[in-house]
């Protein structure tokens, strides 16, 4: 049987732009044609787009370019990219995307990623590759997005009543390139997630995962079957040829399987590269409150717990209301006072009793002589600079109010401080980095708009307050935990002694962000656990869990700590499984 | 090698850079926008031979991709003028046979005509391969022309104003032509793709055949077990349970290989594979050059025997051809000057000679002699003053009295003096007509 080859034609004459410019001479016309005739790369044997993006990349890592070239040249972009975590799969993939666009191969591209990585992908592709991807939120977005990116969890929804995928529009489009990040979640052949991906019409399909094989060889089979139907035969044939009875992990005919894998896979290990990874050293800085401060702290908690009423007399115990005020109150005395003042200023909204309570706390603040938290910070900064005056410190806070308060309070130290509350253009970002690197001692930053800022020259990070979303904390640390970081990183986190803050810092810093994982691994672990997306309240699921435990504990630290312990256990199991997956993958693919 | 160097030199000179050197080119004052897309700041030092002190350039160097891209949105339209000479009267004689006429004077006027040179870059994409073809097409008067090549001509730049008459181009024409030009190469690519596509299709077909085959086999063996169970001697209760289990297994298997579903899935992947092996052709107009050249309108005034004749003609300075001299009778183009007795320009087919040897054309007012029916030309046609009929010269006589022309029929000869005159003026004496003077003489003799 021979099939007819499909031919698509386009004829672009751009008559509307036929303006005469300064470059209309015969010599230039002939030059243009001569050069056009010269530039005829039949096969892809170099990345013609690389010089364009080179300056946007902080480091030139040859293995990234090499990987992109292999994917393009040897696999025609139908491959499994299984590089170990930390090698920059996003960069390698970005190079593939850029090259395909540059050479005219790709006009419709779709990236499916875990929820927590969508923004990161968009930022990287924009910052480093000058490609702007459109985030798919609603079904209509498919109509206007040639370069689309979506959280797979968001778009895979299946409507049981109509027996259709809610985002079925994606299946009507012929994609030039489909990329699925953290694709190991597609190991279940019968899941809706897998079916959703399998139904996408694609000319090129790039599957990204560091752990294509987790527990069961059948998972690997399913992943490859998605990539290339029948590459490993039918499932029955695969079982017969490669599975030892009663052992899901040790394949029969290991060499044959490995060869089959190599036909569709690109995998590099960190040990094959020159990239060095530095440790994150967590340091909790205890803030010891004065007696007066303790009273204030307790009064605030009390107010939220039992004296937080609307003017109608309804108690404000809704989670969202508490989410809104709690982070501000715990950030700094300044932002706490601001929140209290807002209650007092809204006489119509809040109950008289709440307003009186708030006023009482505010009065107590007014006569307060010390701010222990800011003093602890100043002492910490002095200690750091005492060790080495040439170091840099990056201080993070969630609130601009706190940011400016810290700056004000640090003024007497005479240190050079640069504030950062967001930047949009690459030029702005470059200027900020330059300022911090070459002139300032300290940068104080909020999280907004800091994607793409690389401070690998700084190895001290202070969390003045701590987001309860571990992904935000990863974002913060990610600014200094980059290729090029030459020293171990000190991650300082301030926590008020004897409060729930200590437990939260312990969970997020000691049990999640600084447990020795490579950057990029925590999001995968949370993704595997189904905890990287947002919960019902629109905030990150972990954050929501902590918050719920806080509300349920009603200020009882013991109950709260038990709740935190539960989360910790889940996370530890996730980390455990993940390390097993890594070992399993490595044993199957890497070892002889 | 020197070709590359020339390109580089020419390009950077065009960018108003300072280009120094011969073997190695040092480029200074590079514009910012170029530095940005090249990803490297100037000055540049380019070498064209190995081991020279500079960045080695070969035809596959990135620089040429960048130059190509830099020029992509530039030099889109080029306006050129062919400088062509007018024609002199002497030269005219080479094109037109004057047939003894003399040129009295020539009035010249020039108009522009245009040839469009369209340069298309056609890119063929298939799998991960790219092929690029550059085609030059020339269009004149909305027709593709083959016999023109800009390289054969010297040009000077033209201005937009000079090309104001430029009309809309029908792009269907080049589109069709390019398709034609690609045809053979496409056939080759198709053959190549078919081999690979067939292999992939085989893989998919085999996979799905195996799937349904396996499941069918399993169903079959379950059915066999079911049949065996019926004949076995187990107690009824166990039998019933086992039977139900096997029935359920069959249903499950049948669902799994639901033939329609499987077929649908297979079809999907076959189509996907066909799309993977499709060929994408995109043609882009790299440059449109409007080549303008003069067409001279000539007004030639010929002179012969004090008669003037104005003849219009067109001189195409490009083809060096004289056009638009046409026979006034049949409108065919002519290459010689023939003018009839009534001052018409005509071709040989439309001309004739009168018995008087004058040239006569079919357009001329033609008459026949009333008496002898012979064709007569304008100049040898006479009008009888008596009967007002047209007559030929041999039938035309002169009345000796009035000196007017009269035809043979209207004339008679006086029997006495033998002179010829109009019958009407003659008088009859015994059946004979005499001219008035002879009549008078005879009558006087009768009296005396
Ligand atoms: Zn004629
Ligand atoms: Zn005549
Ligand atoms: Zn005539
Ligand atoms: Zn006659
Ligand atoms: Zn007559
Ligand atoms: Zn007479």
What features would you highlight for this structure?
heterodimer, A: 592 residues, alpha/beta, Rossmann fold, 4 domains, 7-stranded parallel beta sheet, 22 helices, B: 448 residues, alpha+beta, Cysteine Rich Protein, 8-stranded mixed beta sheet, 8 helices, 33% helix, binds zinc ion
Describe the structure.
The complex is a heterodimer of chains A (592) and B (448). By secondary structure, chain A is an alpha/beta fold. Chain A folds into 4 domains: 6-41, no CATH class; 50-272, Rossmann fold, CATH 3.40.50.10810; 280-285 and 374-589, P-loop containing nucleotide triphosphate hydrolases (Rossmann fold, 3-Layer(aba) Sandwich); 293-366, no CATH class. Chain A has 22 helices and 20 strands. In chain A, the strands form 5 sheets. A 7-stranded parallel β-sheet of chain A has the order 4-5-3-9-11-2-14. In chain A, strand 6 and strand 7 (164-165) form a beta hairpin. In chain A, helix 18 (470-478) packs across helix 19 (500-513), helix 19 packs parallel to helix 22 and helix 21 (541-553) runs antiparallel to helix 22. The longest helix of chain A is centred in the C-terminal third of the chain and has 33 residues, at 557-589. By secondary structure, chain B is of the alpha+beta class. Among the domains of chain B are: 1-74; 367-447, Cysteine Rich Protein. Chain B has 8 helices and 24 strands. In chain B, the strands form 8 sheets. In chain B, strands 5, 6, 7, 8, 9, 10, 11 and 12 form an 8-stranded mixed β-sheet that branches. In chain B, strands 1-2-3-4 form a 4-stranded mixed β-sheet, covered by helices on one side. In chain B, strands 13-14 form a two-stranded antiparallel sheet. In chain B, helix 5 runs antiparallel to helix 6 (236-256) and helix 5 runs antiparallel to helix 7. Chain B is elongated. The N and C termini of chain B lie far apart (128 Å). At the A-B interface, strand 1, helix 1, helix 2 and strand 10 of A face helix 1, helix 3, strand 5, strand 6 and strand 7 of B. Strand 1 (7-12) of chain A pairs parallel with strand 10 of chain B, so a sheet runs across the interface. The structure holds zinc ion (ZN) (6 copies). One zinc ion binds next to loops of chain B.
């Amino acid at each position: 049987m021979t099939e007819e080859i499909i031919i698509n034609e386009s004829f672009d004459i751009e008559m509307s732009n036929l303006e005469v410019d300064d470059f209309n001479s015969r010599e230039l016309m002939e030059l243009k044609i001569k050069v056009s005739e010269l530039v005829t790369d039949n096969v892809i044997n170099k990345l013609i787009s690389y010089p364009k993006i080179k300056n946007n990349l902080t480091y030139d890592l040859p293995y990234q370019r090499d990987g992109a070239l292999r994917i393009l040249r040897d696999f025609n972009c139908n491959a499994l990219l299984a590089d170990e975590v930390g090698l920059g799969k996003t960069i390698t993939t970005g190079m593939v995307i850029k090259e395909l666009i540059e050479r005219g191969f790709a006009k419709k591209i779709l990236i499916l990623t875990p929820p927590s990585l969508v923004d990161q992908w968009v930022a990287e592709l924009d910052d480093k590759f000058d490609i702007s991807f459109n985030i798919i939120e609603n079904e209509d977005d498919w109509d206007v997005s040639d370069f689309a990116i979506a959280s797979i969890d968001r778009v895979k929804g299946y409507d049981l009543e109509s027996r259709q995928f809610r985002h079925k529009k994606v299946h009507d489009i012929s994609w030039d390139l489909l990329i699925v990040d953290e694709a190991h979640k597609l190991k279940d052949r019968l899941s809706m997630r897998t079916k959703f991906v399998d139904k996408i019409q694609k000319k090129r399909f790039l599957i990204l995962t560091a752990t294509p094989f987790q527990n069961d060889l059948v998972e690997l089979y399913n992943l490859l079957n998605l990539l290339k139907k029948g590459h490993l035969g039918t499932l029955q044939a695969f079982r017969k040829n490669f599975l030892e009875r009663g052992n899901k992990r040790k394949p029969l005919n290991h060499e044959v399987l490995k060869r089959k894998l190599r036909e569709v896979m690109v995998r590099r290990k960190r040990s094959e590269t020159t990239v060095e990874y530095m440790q994150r050293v967590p340091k909790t800085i205890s803030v010891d409150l004065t007696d007066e401060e303790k009273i204030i702290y307790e009064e605030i908690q009390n107010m939220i717990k039992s004296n937080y009423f609307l003017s109608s007399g309804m108690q404000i115990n809704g989670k969202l209301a508490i989410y809104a005020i709690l982070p501000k109150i715990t950030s700094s005395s300044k932002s706490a006072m601001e929140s209290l003042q807002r209650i007092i200023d809204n006489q119509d909204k809040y109950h008289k009793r709440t307003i009186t309570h708030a006023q009482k706390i505010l009065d107590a603040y007014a006569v307060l002589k010390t701010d222990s938290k800011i003093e602890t910070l100043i002492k910490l900064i002095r200690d750091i600079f005492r060790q080495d005056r040439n170091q840099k410190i990056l201080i993070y806070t969630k609130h601009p109010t706190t940011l400016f308060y810290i700056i004000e309070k640090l003024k007497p130290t005479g240190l050079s401080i640069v504030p950062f509350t967001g930047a949009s253009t690459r030029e702005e970002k470059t200027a900020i980095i330059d300022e911090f690197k070459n002139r300032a001692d300290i940068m104080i930053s909020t999280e907004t708009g800091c994607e793409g800022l690389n401070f690998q020259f700084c190895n001290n990070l202070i969390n003045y307050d701590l987001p309860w979303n571990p992904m935000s904390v990863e974002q913060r640390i990610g600014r200094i935990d980059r290729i090029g970081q030459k020293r171990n990183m000190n991650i300082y986190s301030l926590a008020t002694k004897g409060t729930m803050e200590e437990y939260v810092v312990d969970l997020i810093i000691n049990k999640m962000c600084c447990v020795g994982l490579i950057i990029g691994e925590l999001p995968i672990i949370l993704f595997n656990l189904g905890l990287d997306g947002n919960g019902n309240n629109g905030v990150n699921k972990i954050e929501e869990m902590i918050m719920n435990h806080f509300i349920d504990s009603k200020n009882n630290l013991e109950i709260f700590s038990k709740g935190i312990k539960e989360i910790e256990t889940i996370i530890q199991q996730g980390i455990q499984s993940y390390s097993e997956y890594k070992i399993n993958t490595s044993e199957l693919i890497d070892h002889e | 090698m020197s070709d590359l160097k020339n390109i580089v030199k020419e390009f950077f000179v065009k960018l108003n850079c300072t280009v120094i050197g011969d073997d190695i080119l040092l480029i200074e004052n590079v514009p910012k926008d170029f530095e940005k897309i090249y990803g490297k700041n100037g000055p540049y030092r380019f070498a064209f031979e190995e081991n020279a002190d500079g960045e080695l350039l070969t035809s596959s160097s990135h620089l040429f991709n960048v130059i190509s891209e830099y020029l992509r949105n530039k030099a889109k339209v080029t306006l050129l003028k062919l400088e062509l000479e007018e024609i002199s009267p002497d030269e005219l004689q080479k094109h037109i046979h004057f047939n003894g006429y003399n040129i009295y004077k020539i009035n010249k006027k020039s108009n522009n005509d245009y040839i469009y040179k369209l340069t298309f870059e056609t890119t063929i994409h298939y799998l991960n391969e790219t092929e690029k073809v550059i085609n030059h097409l020339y269009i004149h008067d909305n027709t593709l022309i083959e016999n023109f090549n800009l390289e054969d001509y010297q040009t000077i730049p033209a201005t937009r104003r000079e090309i104001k008459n430029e009309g809309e181009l029908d792009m269907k024409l080049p589109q069709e032509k390019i398709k034609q030009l690609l045809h053979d190469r496409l056939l080759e690519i198709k053959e190549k793709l078919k081999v690979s596509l067939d292999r992939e299709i085989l893989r998919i077909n085999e996979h799905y055949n195996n799937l349904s085959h396996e499941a069918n086999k399993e169903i079959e063996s379950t059915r066999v077990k079911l049949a065996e169970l019926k004949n076995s001697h187990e107690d009824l209760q166990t039998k019933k349970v086992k039977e139900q289990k096997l029935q359920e297994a069959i249903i499950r298997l049948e669902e799994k290989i639901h033939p329609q579903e499987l077929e649908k899935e297979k079809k999907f992947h076959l189509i996907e594979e066909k799309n993977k092996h499709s060929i994408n052709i995109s043609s882009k107009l790299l440059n449109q050059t409007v080549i303008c050249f003069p067409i001279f309108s000539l007004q030639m005034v010929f002179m012969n025997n004090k008669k003037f004749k104005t003849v219009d003609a067109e001189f195409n300075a490009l083809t060096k051809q004289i056009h638009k001299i046409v026979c006034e009778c049949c409108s065919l183009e002519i290459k010689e000057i023939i003018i009839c007795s009534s001052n018409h320009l005509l071709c040989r087919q439309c001309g004739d000679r009168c018995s008087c040897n004058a040239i006569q054309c079919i357009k001329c007012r033609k008459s026949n002699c009333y008496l002898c029916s012979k064709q007569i030309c304008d100049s040898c046609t006479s009008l009888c003053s008596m009967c007002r009929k047209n007559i030929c010269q041999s039938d035309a006589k002169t009345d000796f009295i009035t000196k007017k022309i009269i035809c043979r029929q209207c004339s008679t000869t006086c029997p006495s003096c033998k002179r010829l005159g109009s019958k009407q003026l003659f008088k009859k004496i015994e059946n004979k007509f005499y001219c008035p003077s002879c009549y008078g003489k005879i009558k006087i003799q009768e009296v005396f």
